[in-house]
Specification:
Strand order of the largest sheet: 8-7-6-9-10-11
Strand content: 25-35%
Order of helices and strands: EEEHHHEEEEEHEHEHEEHEEEEEHEEEE
CATH superfamily of the largest domain: DNA ligase/mRNA capping enzyme
Number of domains: 3
Number of strands: 21
Distance between the termini: 39 Å
Structural class: alpha+beta
Shape: globular
Oligomer: single chain
Number of helices: 8
Helix content: 10-25%
Length: 332
């Protein structure tokens, strides 16, 4: 089989209904199978039988440095996540006039605790020393960002543990100073007063003048293939956890897919539908597991039916991100 060029994907059928997606993202090879996901190794050193089948044992052994089976991840998780403010969805009704508006970045959330960069779950990002040198000794909240529509490549870079030169493509865009204690306006001013840093910058915010301004800015950002907008309540304090002082604004897209299978539910949904396995006209297959009522899970759409679903955007491999069931197309 041919190797994967940077940015390419390959779908390989495994033991389940849904094929596994193999990717090369910035030189990091990945597979959507559980064996690849559940390894405790850095992502640049993970492999699996599907990657070995695609690339060959010799190429994979040379890449990861071993022919031994990869170890499994421990069930232990980070003791505590980073103490960050989390957004609530905008309901489309709340007046945004006077709120601070910024582009919602398609990057990776990062919390600088004064000495380390942490993920939202509290895991350490192994940034090179030159990347974090000069950051202040107090907390900063921001996003590790490469470019619009480059989320998967960003993840592939920041989850590596070899402190690679790929970090030169990443910017730490700052949008808050959690320990400051002042209003958002005061915290934003304090961010802007920080000394210039080669790898960090303050994310731009503008005052929203009303609903028309919000819609205009959302359309502009989405036309540039941005993810959406964030709204920050004026004079709000920094609060750890989900808060209505920070709202995310996104547009959803609609599409149709054909049902090719039913995935059994677990937990609360045991004994009824867990997810629909569906296929797009392009041939891409994925699981559609949200948006159903309890009644719909008990009598799900039949195999062969066409369903309408909503999603936010397509991944690099053409798979809808965050798909949600909307309806059965009875007219098709």
């Amino acid at each position: 089989m041919p190797d994967l060029a940077d940015g390419e994907s390959f779908f390989m059928q495994g033991s389940g209904v849904k094929p596994y997606e193999l990717k090369n993202t910035g030189g990091v090879y990945s597979c959507s199978c559980p064996a690849w996901r559940n390894q405790s190794l850095p992502i640049e050193r993970r492999t699996c039988k599907h990657l070995r089948k695609l690339r060959g044992d010799a190429a994979e052994t040379a890449r990861v440095g071993t022919a031994a089976p990869p170890p499994r991840t421990s069930t232990a998780t980070a003791a505590a996540g980073a103490p960050v403010l989390l957004a609530s969805p905008w309901d489309g009704l709340q007046d945004p006039t006077g709120w601070w508006m910024s582009e919602k970045l398609d990057g990776v959330r990062a919390y600088w605790n004064g000495s380390q960069l942490l993920s939202r779950l509290g895991n350490v990002y192994h940034a090179p020393d030159w990347f974090i040198a000069g950051l202040p000794p107090h907390p900063l909240d921001g996003e590790l960002f490469l470019a619009r529509k480059a989320f998967q490549k960003t993840v592939a870079i920041v989850r590596r543990q070899d402190k690679s030169e790929h970090w030169k493509q990443i910017n730490f865009l700052l949008f808050d100073m959690p320990a400051h204690g002042g209003t958002f306006e005061e915290r934003l001013a304090a961010l802007r007063s920080l000394a210039a840093h080669p790898c960090a910058a303050v994310h731009p915010h503008i005052r929203c003048t009303g609903l028309a301004h919000l819609q205009e800015e959302l359309a502009r950002v989405e036309a540039l293939q941005g993810e959406g907008l964030m709204l920050r309540q004026p004079e709000s304090k920094y609060a750890v956890g989900r808060s209505a002082t920070l709202l995310k604004v996104k547009s959803f897209r609609d599409d149709e897919a054909v049902v090719i299978g039913h995935q059994a539910g677990t937990g609360r949904h045991k004994g009824r539908l867990g997810a629909l396995l569906v296929r797009l006209p392009s041939g891409i297959e994925f699981a559609l597991g949200t948006g159903f009522s309890d009644k719909q899970r008990e009598t799900p759409p039949s195999i062969g039916a066409t369903v309408l679903f909503r999603y936010q955007e397509l991944s690099d491999g053409g798979v809808p991100r965050f798909p949600s069931f909307a309806a059965v197309r009875e007219d098709i």
